[in-house]
Amino acid sequence: MPTAAATWITACRLDDIEQEGALRFDHEARTFAIYRGPDDSVWCTDGLCTHEAVHLADGLVMDYEIECPKHSGAFDYRTGEAMRLPACRNLRTYRAEVVDGDVRVAVA
Fold it and tell me: Can you give the residue ranges of the Rieske domain (predicted)?
């Protein structure tokens, strides 16, 4: 069965996100978190913690990990993998890229 084609959405400018930082991005009643890695790479996940639906972009980013601001659960934002309890379900991830300084996210 064919998969749905991705739609690329311009979310922000790369300069809007601090290095090792996160930015909340809302699109069509969905919340995403966009991350800027220590090497200026960009990544995108669902924006809410899988433990209690707290906005992850308000959390602490260190290296390639986002820490939930409510209960300190943590995820590897490159893979979505839950790294520390109480987070035990992985985040969904989305492709992200930088084109001419714009951060674009592929949403299905």
Answer: 9-105
Sorted by where each begins, the domain ranges of the chain are 7-107
Percent of the chain past pLDDT 70, that is, above it, reads 96
Q: Determine the Cα angle at 63 with ends 58 and 66, to 5°.
A: 30
Distance CA 47, CA 9 (A): 16
User: pLDDT tens for residues 45-62?
Assistant: 999 999 998 999 999 999
Write down the pLDDT at residue 3: 56
Q: Which two tokens stand for residue 19?
A: 């290095």
Q: Where are the alpha helices (DSSP H) in 1-108?
A: none
CA-to-CA distance for 2 and 12, rounded, in angstroms? Answer: 30
Give the per-residue SS3 of 75-106: EECCCCCEEECCCCCCCCEECEEEECCEEEEE
